[in-house]
Amino acid sequence: MTTQIATPVGPARAHLHRAARPRGTVVLSHGAGGGVDAPDLVALKALVDDGWNYVLVEQPWRVAGKKVAPAPKTLDAAWIPVIAALHDGRRRLTGPWITGGRSAGARVACRTAAATGTDGVLALAFPLHPPGHPEKSRAHEGLQVGVPLLVVQGERDPFGTPHEVGAAVPNATVRPARGDHGFTKDPQDVVTAVRGWLEGAAGSFGG
């Protein structure tokens, strides 16, 4: 099921995959350089088989056909009402709620974790710093997350290795995956890492 959700910066588009007997909901968004067809986001549809509703969200700038992502505050302004809409009304889905995304989408979920009332954050390929510039750290975005946080990071990610992320964001559970910032074309190790975290942290989630 695909539905549009109004936000202050234009409509977002949500692709809903409902589990037969839901135990919670995972909502993820894309990065600044791609869409919801990224291999890792597609592969994680397997979570539906585990009983998780799975929602992929296209930010308004992608829906509008733009090539460049807007400023972080604009991304956040769209994300918060999307999560609120999925909580309520005819789209109402089951908690606990895990929000997240890949790259820029992961940053959005971290920054808005308190505002959305999420029960956990899933960060795929968290861009800790621009390539070659570790001094420009974005660790504060992960450090402000007050709920369970999983970061799945490519072993050769130029935006920050798993070791770098673990050292800079000690409140996160960090799992390495094959590949670089885009992982691999068959990211089953990403799916395995996410499944393991969801099972292991289940008692820590609200809902």
Automatic annotation (TrEMBL):
Pfam families recorded: Abhydrolase_11 (PF20408)
| SUPFAM superfamilies to which the protein is assigned, alphabetical | alpha/beta-Hydrolases
Where is each KANL3/Tex30 alpha/beta hydrolase-like domain found?
A: 24-186
Top-level taxon in the UniProt lineage: Bacteria
Sorted alphabetically, which Gene3D superfamilies does this protein's record hold? alpha/beta hydrolase
Its protein name is KANL3/Tex30 alpha/beta hydrolase-like domain-containing protein
